[in-house]
Amino acid sequence: MQDSHNGSTRRRRTREPRRQLATLEQLDWSLPSYTDQPIEPLDSDGLERIHNAAMRILEEIGITFLHPKARSLLKEAGCDVNEKTECVRMDRVFVMEQVAKAPASFKLVPRNPARSIIWGGRHFTFGPVASPPNVSDLDGGRRVGNRVDYQNLLRLSQTFNCLHFSAGYPVEPVDLHASTRHLHAFYDLLTLTDKITHAYSLGTERIEDAMEMVRIAAGVSVEEFDSTARMYTNINSSSPLKHDWPMLDGAMRMAARGQPVVVAPFTLAGAMAPVTLAGALAQQTAEALSAIALLQVVRPGAPCVFGAFTSNVDMKSGAPAFGTPEYVRAMQISGQLARRYHLPWRGSNANACNTPDAQATWESMFSLWGVTTGQANMVKHGAGWLEGGLTASFEKLVIDCEMLQQFIYYQKPIGTTDEDLAVDAIAEVGPNGHFLGCEHTRERYQTAFYSPFLSDWRNFESWQLDGGKDAVQRANTLYKRLLDEYVPPPIDEAIREELTEFVDRRCREGGAKTDF
Amino acid sequence: MQDSHNGSTRRRRTREPRRQLATLEQLDWSLPSYTDQPIEPLDSDGLERIHNAAMRILEEIGITFLHPKARSLLKEAGCDVNEKTECVRMDRVFVMEQVAKAPASFKLVPRNPARSIIWGGRHFTFGPVASPPNVSDLDGGRRVGNRVDYQNLLRLSQTFNCLHFSAGYPVEPVDLHASTRHLHAFYDLLTLTDKITHAYSLGTERIEDAMEMVRIAAGVSVEEFDSTARMYTNINSSSPLKHDWPMLDGAMRMAARGQPVVVAPFTLAGAMAPVTLAGALAQQTAEALSAIALLQVVRPGAPCVFGAFTSNVDMKSGAPAFGTPEYVRAMQISGQLARRYHLPWRGSNANACNTPDAQATWESMFSLWGVTTGQANMVKHGAGWLEGGLTASFEKLVIDCEMLQQFIYYQKPIGTTDEDLAVDAIAEVGPNGHFLGCEHTRERYQTAFYSPFLSDWRNFESWQLDGGKDAVQRANTLYKRLLDEYVPPPIDEAIREELTEFVDRRCREGGAKTDF
């Protein structure tokens, strides 16, 4: 900035006009780790009882695999396959042998290696909202998902350092035709962000196209792609007890090439799973481990994530509930189960609220405390989720990022050196002074405390004079400013052209079938 | 209710017309306990370093006691007292000997013994907002505290079972003259609620009047009163390093009669305490233990509570910040310190927000997770606090109670019996069914899950058709309905008359001096 008045800077500004304006004060990009012990609601006996129930489900009841290749692979591996019902029963020795082959921890490397992350151990990572059909903000209200909002949500996901990976589409770009949507959407993902990307397992073409585009964006060979985790897919079982064809197909293709698969059963207690938490968790475990076992048969050592989405329905209405005490406990016990199986695990920042108000916030906070005290390694839907996943909210995304940042900062160790204990400063200030001006404070005040980007801590009168804006209104102002300041991450022009050519070619070929 | 159609019931209904209408679905009154392990950020070495720094503050720097009797008692007990500076230095052996006399746990019995609570062990209790000068709701906006709002906040505090005790005045009834305010305010407290009450330590008359009124309300003799904890006072040190006369006077009078004293230093890091968390906690510990040591000299075994109010200021503006990562850690470490000293401890549900929006909620949730993972025994300002304590909000009170209830419910153990594990139900439903109608669900659905009174879990369309009300608007509707349905707890008419006579007499005598 020292040469801001000479011509050369003016020229540089012309080339990168907006980068200089970035004004978001946020924590630097980092891969945070949990420093506390996890909260573990069950003792080892209780945990073993859930494990045993899950094994009984797999041995005695079985899981339906709606994919012939999955069934034939499992049959070859010694499972009891009923081709008529498509049900596969597997004994616990087989399951545990397969699960033991999955890595407890693995690194994911996106096209920008500086954005690499690790899933496993005590590391934790957050991703934005994924997959809602609708999008909303204060200005435009609630509307059907579209590419403009999709791109803007990607830009925000890229901007916030507390978001470590891209999840599914932050909103479904419904205005793109379903057969070629994934091509344009992935082009946006790979050019507007440089973080780890997710590809939907919606049949053969989509997942193959996505892998090829990630390979092109990374500028690596097929062998190099296959040797490192560079993206991931998330599959949900069709609870109860079923894995469908498109998800299995995508998951097996990803696993075959060493790309991570998150297996997240959608076990809502009372609807798709038993009304008891222990029962729902036993079913979640059975469904997740059955798919992970399959993927280990496909490629031993394929990176897998134990997904936890157990919550409950409101028994008065049948509506899904999230961020409830049940959800917190389900997440913490899922963490216990994942650690028992030496698998990384996934949770979510979920809520069932229609607007980003106090309810949305307390439900999100219960969810986030549940997944973080349970020590989830990846938190999907970390920012922007509303209505149980039916809407992506721009304002909620900003609010959630403010909370996520605090969860990251919270893991900072508390120093207890003599300097930290400050007995000398206390003696210096004495009973009649204050610490605002003392040297001990002056040396530390700039970095002493967490500094939020969204909180308003002014007194009531100042706040009111300035319009009395609540958190949602401030989030609205901030997200628009961030979009205005957004600069895309650098990409090699040759790579961009190769991506464009790939998209064009695959569009000409018709993209993917839409009859799944 | 079996005779609801005969005349006697109709007469009863005439006498108590509103009791039958109560419609708040809430958890029953209970004394909850923590079932998890506490989160402990410091290892034993770090904890001892804070302890050691606190002891050095007491030994080398000293605490100012602005009360001659306090100084003379401490001098008699062997402390180093400087009468000119009013500073008292006490060595660690003395402090720890005195603190060891305080009970680790004790029972408090209000005028309705069914509302007894325990402070200590793994028990936890919540109280409402205390002491703001202002009050607000959607209808009337923000206004100066007054008796009508004061009484209404008491009625709500009585109504919610998640609130276990009354704290200070939920809003200051400023329209009552300061000299007799405590008499009218305490009359309201003792007739509109039947839970444990707090009396302000604001000099001699107020605390003596309050103790006498609590004795009258309980219908017990002076000896019976003195033998059991029946109320409490909360004192704040004038940080740094000072205890003022009115608080010391009230606290010593309470302790002398066996009534609990909560000692809560107001150690905002960066302003009244060092900018480092460890330093602020060392100072908090020194200030709290110095008063607790004094109270043990006054009456060995007097029930005391280790108060924790350490947070930080925003170093950009000097404004207090609450519900920050620093606050969470300060609360958890305060829990470690309290357990080290075998003392019950107090935290708060604090926030620095001007309106009950998302920010107020995330700050409250960070506060509540901080105090509950730190396992506070009493949580003051549990419901209704806004603006760092400058305003009591009717809507925030309802929102907070919804959250407090969930913290209570969350402690419920998770069953893992065969019935809970539901393998038979999973077999029965199979891969093509759902659990909504199965017998296992039908037997349990009514009590299976937490049932909120404020959440709206309807889908967007239903919610929007019904006015699209956010949590604050719904809380507004609910609090007014609860006031409409409120029925005061029963009180013996003779006792009520005795209270009235006491208030009248003390008012005629002029009440309390107002020159403190």
Name the descriptors:
43% helix; homodimer; alpha/beta; globular; 516 residues; 12% strand
Oligomer: homodimer
The largest interface is: A-B, 123 and 121 residues
The span between the termini of chain A is 55 Å
Mean pLDDT of chain A: 94
Major sheet characteristics of chain A: 7 strands, parallel
Global geometry of chain A: globular
Describe this structure in words.
Two copies of one chain form a homodimer. Chain A is an alpha/beta fold and 516 residues long. In chain A, 43% of the residues lie in helices and 12% in strands. Chain A is built from 19 helices and 20 strands. In chain A, strands 6-18-17-14-12-10-9 form a seven-stranded parallel beta sheet. In chain A, a hairpin with a 4-residue loop joins strand 2 (80-82) and strand 3 (87-89). In chain A, helix 2 (44-61) packs across helix 10 (277-298), helix 6 runs antiparallel to helix 19 and helix 9 packs across helix 10 (277-298). Residues 1-20 of chain A have low confidence and may be disordered. Chains A and B meet through helix 2, helix 10, strand 16, helix 11 and helix 12 of A and helix 2, helix 10, strand 16, helix 11 and helix 12 of B.
Give a brief outline of the structure.
Helices cover 43% and strands 12% of the residues of chain A. With 516 residues, the first copy, chain A, is an alpha/beta fold. A seven-stranded parallel beta sheet of chain A has the order 6-18-17-14-12-10-9.
